Fold:
Amino acid sequence: MMFRFSLLFSLLAHCLNAQNIINGQIFTPGIAIVDAPQPNTPLGGDTLQVALDVSSDGQLQLPPYPANPVSAINNITIYLSSYTTGKNFTISNGTAGAGNASLGAIMQQEPGSTVKHVNWVWPDCLVGDGDPTGSNSSRGVYNISIRQNFRLNGTDQYTIFDLPIHVTNNIPKEGIRPSCDALDNPLIDEEALVASANNFTRIAGTAIQTGGTGEGLGKPKPDAQPKDGLGGAGAVDWRTGIYCAWLAVFVFMLTL
Ligand SMILES: *[C@@H]1O[C@H](CO)[C@@H](O)[C@H](O)[C@H]1NC(C)=O
Ligand SMILES: *[C@@H]1O[C@H](CO)[C@@H](O)[C@H](O)[C@H]1NC(C)=O
Ligand SMILES: *[C@@H]1O[C@H](CO)[C@@H](O)[C@H](O)[C@H]1NC(C)=O
Ligand SMILES: *[C@@H]1O[C@H](CO)[C@@H](O)[C@H](O)[C@H]1NC(C)=O
Ligand SMILES: *[C@@H]1O[C@H](CO)[C@@H](O)[C@H](O)[C@H]1NC(C)=O
Ligand SMILES: *[C@@H]1O[C@H](CO)[C@@H](O)[C@H](O)[C@H]1NC(C)=O
Ligand SMILES: *[C@@H]1O[C@H](CO)[C@@H](O)[C@H](O)[C@H]1NC(C)=O
Ligand SMILES: *[C@@H]1O[C@H](CO)[C@@H](O)[C@H](O)[C@H]1NC(C)=O
Structure:
């Protein structure tokens, strides 16, 4: 019995890291908070819209940051990728493409705003309505893959956060749609991606140290050393969330 309990509790402890949505705000493994869209939402329309609070609800100032900041977001890149459809489109790699087919630096847009509204025109192969039809459709399940290069409490981090969505609503043919081929990138396997990112979980609500040149850390530290410790990508498996919810119910019943 005790063994079963400790096993379940260790599984549950793992689950707590798995997802962190508070009042509709998704706390990424990083500084940014996703205000929209919610996971597994069916999306369509003219553009894909993502709202990112890069101040973490006002905890961190906007750029320009002080010299040698203790915490900062260096940059954010975003891709729309799917192992199911085999596509990996650039939403923003920091350099705007012709006609903003891919977007410029996210952190530099809307300079006075803590929420960056990413507004990306769906490329041509996603035009359609409803579920994918046939095996060569590019519509269907995707991740909005949000990559943050940031510094938190004096430690440099790089994390990947995959937010699942369904590209199944109507995307009209009208308007100028960028070519999918021009935005597509090779897919990298999941294991390599996990190994390329830091294993970091931000506990929602915890403070962020701000200021420059080591302020808040006691003595200034020789920094600019990206921390080693390559670990897992901060990806969220939303199925895990459901599994964890059931696990919690089960644990609760055992305690009755
Ligand atoms: C979304 O990302 C997760 C890892 O973060 C991966 O397991 C899953 O297969 C991806 N989904 C798609 C549709 O590629
Ligand atoms: C993002 O920031 C990191 C760390 O400063 C840097 O190495 C990388 O080149 C930057 N990437 C982009 C796309 O700006
Ligand atoms: C691209 O986006 C930037 C930033 O939102 C904007 O200033 C610029 O006018 C846009 N360029 C085009 C060609 O739409
Ligand atoms: C799928 O691709 C094949 C080969 O490229 C093509 O012959 C076929 O018409 C395509 N089907 C659809 C529904 O686009
Ligand atoms: C950014 O993405 C666009 C579209 O995929 C690509 O053409 C361009 O080479 C990329 N730039 C960099 C610096 O990776
Ligand atoms: C998508 O392409 C970008 C740019 O090459 C790469 O950094 C990213 O890891 C790729 N995503 C996946 C899921 O392979
Ligand atoms: C950052 O520092 C604050 C204040 O010391 C602390 O409460 C918080 O847990 C730290 N965050 C991380 C990720 O270490
Ligand atoms: C990530 O860190 C957590 C706790 O710090 C640990 O339990 C987990 O095994 C790590 N994951 C990987 C892939 O290293």
Observations:
- Residues 21-236 form one domain.
